[in-house]
Amino acid sequence: QKEVEQNSGPLSVPEGAIASLNCTYSDRGSQSFFWYRQYSGKSPELIMFIYSNGDKEDGRFTAQLNKASQYVSLLIRDSQPSDSATYLCAVNSDSNYQLIWGAGTKLIIKP
Amino acid sequence: GAVVSQHPSWVICKSGTSVKIECRSLDFQATTMFWYRQFPKQSLMLMATSNEGSKATYEQGVEKDKFLINHASLTLSTLTVTSAHPEDSSFYICSASTHLQTSGQETQYFGPGTRLLVL
C-alpha cells in the first residue's frame, strides 16, 4: 500500500515567519512530487512540483526533496494571512499518472 | 496556461434525477483526466481515471453504473451521476494531466469543482 503522510495540523504561524510543511512517502520508487494549496470550499491549486533531490525555489515558496529519507517539504517565507489554507502533498510513481495524496496540513497564518 | 474548466459550478436536483458534469482542458490536450469527490472537511477521494477513447478505470467502491464517465476527446470528459440521491451530495472535482516539456513529467491541473446538492 503506497502511502503519503502529512501532519493534519492545524499549524499556526505568525505573519512574516517561515511556515514549514512536511510530507513523507512510502514508495521508494516515487518519481515526482507536488504541493497543492486548497482554500476552504475551493479546488486544489498546484503551487510547486519537484523531481530532483535538493531545493527548488519559486518566489516565497521553496520545495525540498530528500529521496534517501523519503520526505518532501514546503517552506513558505514571509507568511501572509492569504497563505492560510490546507496544503496537500501528492506523489506520483505509477505509469497511469495517478497521484497518491496526503490528507493535507491546515496552515493558519496569524496576523 | 494549463486551465481546466468545469460546468456547472453548482447544481441542485431532485432525488432520482441524473446530473451531467463537464470537464474541459482549455489550453492543452490532456493525457488523462481524473474525477475526484470531496465531502466537507475530508480528503480528496479519487473516483476514476479516464483516458480518451477508452473505458474509465474506477476505484474500489465506486459504482461504475452510477457514475458514468465519457471521455470523448483529449479536452473533454463528462461525469454523469445517474439516479442521484442525497448521499451523492458532494463536491466533484476533475483534473487533467499533461506532460510538461520543461520537466518531462506528468502534472495534474484541477478544475474549479462542481458542488452537487441532491434534495
Describe the structure.
The complex is a heterodimer of chains A (111) and B (119). By secondary structure, chain A is mainly beta. Chain A contains no helices and eleven strands. In chain A, the strands form two sheets. In chain A, strands 2, 4, 5, 9, 10 and 11 form a six-stranded mixed beta sheet that branches. The termini of chain A are far apart. Helices cover 0% and strands 55% of the residues of chain B. Chain B has strands spanning 4-7, 10-13, 19-25, 32-38, 45-50, 57-58, 67-73, 76-81, 90-100, 105-110, 114-118. In chain B, 34% of the residues are buried. The model of chain B has no long low-confidence stretch (mean pLDDT 92). The interface between A and B is medium-sized, with 22 and 21 residues.
In terms of DSSP E residues, the strand content of chain B is over 45%
Integer-rounded radius of gyration of chain B = 14 Å
The largest β sheet of chain A comes out as: 6 strands, mixed
Distance between the termini of chain B: 37 Å
* Poorly predicted tracts of residues of chain B: none
The protein's oligomeric status is heterodimer
Low-confidence stretches of chain A: none
Give the strand content of chain A: over 45%
Count of individual beta strands of chain A: 11
Helix proportion of chain A = under 10%
Tally of separate helices of chain B: 0
Mean pLDDT across the residues of chain B is 92
Biggest contact: A-B, 22 and 21 residues
Could you report the average pLDDT of chain A, rounded to the nearest whole number?
Answer: 94
| SSE succession of chain A | EEEEEEEEEEE
The description of the largest β-sheet of chain B is: 7 strands, mixed
Number of helices of chain A: 0
Element-level helix/strand string of chain B: EEEEEEEEEEE
